[in-house]
Structures
1.
Amino acid sequence: MASKNILIVPGDGIGQEVTAVGKKVLDKIAARFNHTFHYDEALIGHVAIEATGNPLPEESLEKMKKSDAVLFGAVGHPKYDNDPSAKVRPEQGLLKMRKELGLYANLRPIKLFDELLEASSIKPEILKGADILFFRELTGDIYFGEKGRKNNGDTAYDIAEYSRYEVERIGRKAFEAARTRRKKLCSVDKANVIETSRLWREVIQKLAPEYPDVEVEHMFVDAAAMILIKDPRRFDVVVTANLFGDILTDEASQIAGSMGMLASASVGDGTGVYEPIHGSAHDITGKGVANPLASILSAALLLDISFGMKAESEAVISAVDKVLKAGFRTRDIADANTPADKILGTEAIGNEVLKFL
Ligand code: IPM
Ligand code: MG
């Protein structure tokens, strides 16, 4: 029996709809396992800009630092995507949160629920049994280096930077995770061209002798992008830099059937943040059709990683599995054989998960 403070940070677009369902699942877990979860909410992204002019208001950051864990939705708004000159952008809130909370490790587990074999655009015989855990570095790289314009704005630059300790701390996390799995680590870089990648490879190579039970492989990012689709079972744990990880995990979401299924955990020295890897999806916002399963699975990661509640976390994952086994789908994971009455909206599929809890 535990008492915890959970901060819900829905952000923009479907973030609102999916975190509402994730919260209900946490509530149900608290009731079933006799825990007390206290909730508060905070603003980030476009909604925060509208309310305060700031994509991450100080008040939100303070609440995050004080809470035991954050259930996060998404940030973004199409109006900024088509306005490259905008100085204040929703994504700045997300990046600032990652930096300020020291969330340097982003864990993105890619696992296909058997029932979704047909939902992927990849052939079932290639996918079956694929199970990958990505460690994406989250507070360095080209995302956070100096950027700007010169030559009267006609030239733009973004500097990619990594320090030894930054590679080492994420490297250790990945090695340790590999130990608890199939003991294979693939480090992805572009060391044939990029200097930060050469440092990356050097650091991972230096760590390797400390983990003699883990088999290490180094792969260039272009090859990794290809093999991920050709032979995903070849990977166990993958560790990579911020930008490569951003791109490869969107690609890998197709292994899990849909972006709507993938949860992630961002952890570091303080409060952990749990969020779907999908974005704000304004094209379907407010229609009640968004897939909340990634937010529910993010809640499962939160229970496991931040609270050490293994049984609770497994109960959530097993409930999602049962809902899929019962044939229920949201639109994004339905296929030609899904009967119309099994295709549910955001709230309705959330309620099915609650029933199994
Ligand atoms: C993600 C997103 C973010 C990123 C965007 C919204 C800034 O794509 O979490 O993967 O690039 O990290
Ligand atoms: Mg991304």
2.
Amino acid sequence: MTATQVQADAIAIPVVAGRGLQEPVQQLDSTLGGMVSEIVSRNEHRGRLLEILPVHLSGQIPSRRLLLYGLGSLRDMDGQRMRYAHHEMIRAARTYGYGKVAVLKAEPVVEENLAAVVEGSVMGTWEQRSRQSGQRDRVELEELILLGFGLDREHDVVAAEQLGEATNRAREWQNLPGNVLTPEALAEEARRIARRHELEVEILGPEELRAGGYNLLLGVAAGSNVPPRLIRLHQKRGPEGGPTLAMVGKGITFDSGGISIKVAKNMHLMKADMAGAAAVLAAMEVIAARRIPLDVMAIVAATENMPGGSAQRPGDVITAASGKTVEIINTDAEGRLVLADALTHALRHGASHLIDLATLTGAATVALGHAATTAVSNNDAFWEMVAAASQRAGDRAWRLPIYADYRVLLQSKYADLRNSDYGEAGSICGGMFIQEFVEGKPWVHLDIAASSWNSNGDLTTIPRGPTGAGTRLLVHLAELLAHPNPA
Ligand code: BES
Ligand code: MN
Ligand code: ZN
């Protein structure tokens, strides 16, 4: 099938800034009497990232419209921008009422073009406003036709669809209000995944948590009337003696700050303080569906952080499941507390490699903004693997250093550690607090506080609202750990 034969509502045509017409477009262009090259040469479309231009046709080819869309300049291109270009192209197509879209392959602009095109396009089908009644602004995408991507790509297409849909599932969970997506609702999602893919599932409630000494998680939960859940999904498909990957997600279903209560402005966005949990669960579902030959755990520490009458107080000292004592300076630094116990839980169940995902600090926004996840790690080799997964996923992560000098900032007068008041390097120190609970195992901490939800309307080339950050990265990480030396 070629662009001149296909019968679609629109043929989407990639335009790279400063590059003239893409080679794969040239045959179509000559059939159309040079229409596309004229638009580009007259700068009616400059190929800027997210620049979109619908063009009417009058029967020269079976398709009804062209949809020119920009990829920006090649030097700025990466997997994340490539996905967002397609995300927005599909949203525009749906706005114009095109349900059947054919997309022409651009010259190689990123390593894995097809994955980026399909994942981005699937992500472009997600709607933040699905809970609004009344008229829909956009049609559904019915069919995406890939032109020029080569034959026998079925397997790659299905894999990319899976990752796009998993990302959207994570976004939808982030988007759900705190009164709906409670800790028990997260647990129910985990049970559903376990049933569908025959995984081991264990859900701990308050009594079991007390028995296991998970006092940091219980301390955060103390101010809320809804009970906490410590969720573990486990697939045992790896070789004897192989690694066990634990993916640990922060699942604060609403973060009011607790007694150290937050200001009202934007507090409603704290319904998404479970974005780490969302990524971990969505990724686990793909890992299980693909039957990746690896032992993998998804662990979620789920609770609200509320200022009820039995809430923990600043100044309280709590003994963690690991035995370390923690002085609570600020009840709003709750993510590191629940993660500490969740990591201990992972180690008790045999984790050899740990990755935690958490909307941990506002300081992550200060460090990198919404353009990327901030990371810290105690292990260069494991970090390299995570960095490779990030690259393949088009899911940016940037490592910050752990300098020994920061260690003193974590010290408490009364306990082994304090949970805040570090004064500087907030995203790093938050990670270093968590590091105190990994027992030296290879570990990466991903602070997705900024990357999982773009609330900055001025930052237009990063997806708005919930992004599902970390979801695709985790699936690629599991693949890499299962097949460290692909043939
Ligand atoms: N959930 C927040 C972090 C956050 C902020 C996520 C903005 C998404 C957007 C976290 O629990 C928190 O409150 N962190 C505090 C830590 C501080 C008290 C040490 C912060 O960053 O201000
Ligand atoms: Mn908080
Ligand atoms: Zn939080």
